[in-house]
Recover the amino acids of this structure.
């Protein structure tokens, strides 16, 4: 959920034009309009300044990810192997398919979507090459 625009929408306040994101309040309040063209995926991230300054644990390493409407989850951690799950078949994320050759095309597609989002938002996160 795009928290800021949705929260403003729930309060009946229009988002400023400079705000990036989609108001999803129409899914929660009956008299509000739902987004006309909702995205086909949601982007995830952990940005932890503690990692930069040396007081974060290894589990708090920055990462970026994507979850698609058709059930794929793809996550990239800095300096770590990729994670890719088919949530339709593996809701508990037990089978990492990132390095399974049968899913090479899907992985490339998800990597490209993630790279596009990183580029559009001016993020400095470096995706590893596949």
């Amino acid at each position: 959920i795009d928290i800021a625009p949705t929260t403003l929408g729930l309060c009946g306040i229009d988002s400023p034009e400079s705000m990036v994101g989609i108001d999803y309040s129409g899914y929660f309040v009956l008299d509000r309009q739902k987004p006309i063209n909702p995205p086909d995926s949601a982007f995830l991230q952990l940005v932890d300044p503690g990692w930069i300054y040396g007081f974060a644990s290894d589990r708090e390493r920055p990462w970026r990810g994507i979850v698609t409407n058709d059930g794929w989850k793809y996550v990239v951690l800095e300096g770590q192997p990729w994670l890719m799950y088919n949530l339709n078949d593996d809701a508990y994320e037990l089978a990492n398919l990132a390095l399974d050759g049968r899913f090479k095309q899907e992985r490339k597609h998800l990597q490209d979507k993630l790279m596009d989002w990183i580029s559009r938002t001016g993020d400095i996160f470096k995706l590893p090459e596949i």
